[in-house]
Amino acid sequence: MQTSSVNNASTPALQGVYLNIPMADWSLLKELIQRFGWQSETREQLLDRFIATRPQTPALSEDEIMAEVHAARHGL
Fold first, then answer.
1. Burial of 35 (0-12, 13-18, 19+ CB in 10 A)
2. Distance (Å, whole) CA 15 – CA 19
3. Where are the alpha helices (DSSP H) in 1-76?
4. Is there a contact between 1 and 20 (Cβ–Cβ < 8 Å)?
5. Which residue, of 40, 43, 48, 73, has the fewest CB within 10 Å?
6. What's the pLDDT tens digit per position in 10-27?
7. Is the entire prediction scored with pTM above 0.85?
8. How many Cβ atoms are within 10 Å of 26's Cβ, its own excluded?
9. Which DSSP category does 19 fall into?
């Protein structure tokens, strides 16, 4: 089963959707996507795009993160 997402939060006129498409129908959907000029990406492409846009250096160090976890666990 192929998962396709169409998501453009930056363009309010577009609606993001997630579809689980049987592999037998995937070529038909790809043809419709091209014919109508829609944009699509697979789950993997969406994840790759998300990872690529994340900061390379985290805002907190590992020690600061662990201090926050400890404080949350122990109510400090």
1. exposed
2. 13
3. 23-36, 43-52, 62-74
4. yes
5. 73
6. 666 888 888 898 999 999
7. no
8. 14
9. E
